[in-house]
């Protein structure tokens, strides 16, 4: 293929790409300026909507190597046989900022992984924190609105952050992590990743286990304080990731699971499906199962990182979800976002395409069956029959596989309704985290909170202090004392 000739989109060589066609050297342009029109029109369409959250992202490819056979817990093929390797695409992100926002903000980091398994893509769409601000998805858009820019000024507004949190005590555990020294990572190589949610595995005998995934950085946790972060170049984390991979200094994570047999969830002292809580390690120890390595940069940021579409609904046989309400809502939200942001056939793009045969009876839609994108998989839409069931399965038309049906899930008899979780235990685990911090970390945490809280209304300040107090009396009194100091010095 001759790559030296500049062409138009139809492949035809272009004689002059510097000058438009005009009537005389000073003249108006003519309508046959198709090359100019194509160039301008395509330019106008270079952007797709950015992600509504996690817009600023950083992607890389890598490998997951299983170091412990998990056939006891799951029939998923990528979890069988020690030493098994599965290709992976990873995307890290910040949550609240736009696509070109700064890298060193105090924010949760997204930690999303796509495992291209031989049975389809399994996505682990987690964060660098083991819990989240909410346990009910009905609150998610309000929460995000409060953390993003003020609708009037288009600036971040700490008063809104704390006004939301003062109305939602369930956020306290996650606030304690966000405001701690871990709130601003030194780099993406120095963060842990967590499924945060309880997910599930199930084995050949149709026995289910609840699991939480932990990806512990082998580079060690490394963080920045506010002053150090302010000195960093706006997009230094992007550079750090690209450079380290380019230099062969591949970041790695040790992968662990916490595993709970299905029936233990019924009587466990904590609701294991509450996303604001962890399972203490003393109850469910970490079991090491693998290594994740990132070892290849993307070839094109837009095609790969920007158009990557991760979804918690991407499960494969032997893996599953859980009754966690937040997770249940996410099963809808991501596919919907992808169809809007990238298009109905987003799964046909190379970064999203499963690295196994894809056969279904879904049809057409924008950009369907783009052959160049299907070098590694058959076009899923080329079956000569487009309905199911049909009479042609004996001749090779795709048929379903009843053996891989997921075990039924037991749901306790309960009334359907809206259940207010406001008065559940919102504080114990925030207190536990506070107590395991060194006095220096506690000082940093409470000083940080006091700075932000000083922008909130006195009413919100009062409620927040009472929440911190309920987590740990020292936590509450340190925040209160530091808040008074900040307020006095800013009067
Ligand atoms: P453990 O003492 O067994 O574990 C404490 C955990 O806290 C370690 O995983 C440690 O991570 C992590 N940690 C330390 N500082 C911070 C911080 N500033 N932000 C986030 N995590 C931090 O305790 P338990 O399992 O009994 O849990 C106690 C508390 O620890 C929980 O309430 C929770 O806040 C926190 N935690 C618990 C996790 C879990 O899955 N059980 C996971 C992460 C945090 P590391 O080893 O990387 O230093
Ligand atoms: C991205 C919704 C909670 C992690 C997104 C996107 C949406 C969304 C719409 C953009 C998707 C896209 O355009 O490709 C929600 C809803 C939630 C929720 C409705 C709760 C009800 C969570 C939680 C986590 C999480 C709890 C982590 C445990 C992520 C990550 C991304 C993301 C990592 C970026 C994925 C990528 O890199 O493309 N979320 N989210 N989200 N979310 Fe959530």
TrEMBL record:
Broadest EC class assigned to this enzyme: oxidoreductase
Record has Transferase as a keyword: no
GO MF, one example: heme binding
Keyword Iron: yes
Cross-referenced Pfam families: Catalase (PF00199), Catalase-rel (PF06628)
Keyword annotations from UniProtKB, A to Z: Heme, Hydrogen peroxide, Iron, Metal-binding, Oxidoreductase, Peroxidase
Domain Catalase core: 7-396
Positions annotated to bind heme: 334
TM helices/strands, residue ranges: none
Database matches in InterPro entries: Catalase, Catalase_AS, Catalase_clade1/3, Catalase_core, Catalase_haem_BS, Catalase_immune_responsive, Catalase_sf
Catalytic activity entry: 2 H2O2 = O2 + 2 H2O
Active site (record annotation): 54, 127
Region (Disordered): 1-21
Stated family: Belongs to the catalase family.
Protein known as: Catalase
Lineage, broadest ranks: Bacteria, Pseudomonadati, Bacteroidota, Cytophagia, Cytophagales
């Amino acid at each position: 293929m001759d790559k030296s000739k500049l062409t138009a989109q139809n492949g035809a060589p272009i004689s002059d790409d510097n000058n438009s066609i005009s009537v005389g050297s000073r003249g108006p342009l003519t309508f046959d300026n198709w090359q100019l029109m194509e160039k301008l029109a395509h330019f106008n369409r270079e952007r797709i909507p950015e992600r509504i959250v996690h817009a600023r992202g950083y992607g890389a490819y890598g490998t997951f190597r299983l170091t412990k056979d998990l056939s006891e817990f799951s029939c998923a093929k990528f979890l069988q046989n020690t030493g098994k390797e599965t290709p992976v695409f990873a995307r890290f992100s910040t949550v609240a900022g736009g696509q070109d926002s700064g890298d060193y903000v105090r924010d949760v980091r997204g930690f999303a992984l796509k495992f291209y398994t031989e049975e389809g893509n399994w996505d682990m769409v987690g964060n660098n924190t083991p819990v989240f601000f909410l346990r009910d998805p009905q609150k998610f858009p309000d929460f995000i609105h409060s953390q993003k820019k003020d609708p009037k000024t288009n600036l971040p507004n700490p008063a809104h952050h704390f006004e939301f949190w003062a109305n939602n005590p369930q956020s306290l555990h996650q606030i304690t992590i966000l405001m701690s020294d871990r709130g601003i990572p030194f780099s993406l190589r120095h963060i842990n990743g967590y499924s945060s949610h309880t997910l599930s595995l199930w084995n050949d005998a149709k026995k289910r286990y609840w699991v939480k995934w932990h990806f512990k950085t082998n580079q060690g946790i490394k963080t920045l304080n506010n002053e150090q972060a302010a000195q960093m170049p706006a997009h230094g984390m992007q550079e750090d990731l690209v450079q380290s991979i380019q230099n062969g200094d591949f970041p790695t994570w040790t992968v662990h699971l916490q595993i709970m047999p299905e029936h233990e969830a019924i009587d466990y002292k904590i609701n294991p499906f509450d996303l604001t809580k962890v399972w203490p390690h003393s109850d469910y120890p970490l079991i090491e199962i693998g290594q994740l390595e990132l070892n290849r940069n993307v070839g094109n940021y837009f095609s790969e990182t920007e158009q990557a579409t991760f979804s918690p609904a991407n499960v494969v046989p032997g893996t599953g979800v859980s009754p966690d309400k937040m997770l249940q809502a996410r099963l809808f939200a991501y596919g919907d976002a992808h169809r809007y942001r990238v298009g109905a056939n987003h799964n046909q793009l190379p970064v999203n395409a499963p690295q196994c045969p894809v056969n279904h009876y879904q049809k057409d839609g924008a950009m369907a069956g783009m052959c160049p994108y299907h070098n590694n998989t058959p076009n899923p839409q080329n079956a000569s029959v487009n309905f199911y069931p049909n009479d042609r399965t004996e001749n090779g038309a795709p048929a379903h596989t009843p053996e891989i049906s997921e075990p039924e899930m037991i749901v306790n008899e309960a009334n359907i309704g809206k259940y207010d979780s406001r008065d559940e235990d919102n504080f114990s685990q925030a207190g536990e985290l506070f107590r395991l911090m060194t006095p220096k970390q506690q000082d940093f945490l409470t000083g940080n909170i006091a700075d932000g809280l000083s922008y909130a209304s006195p009413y919100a300040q009062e409620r927040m202090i009472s929440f911190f107090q309920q987590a740990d009396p020292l936590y509450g009194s340190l925040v209160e004392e530091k808040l008074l100091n900040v307020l006095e010095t800013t009067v």
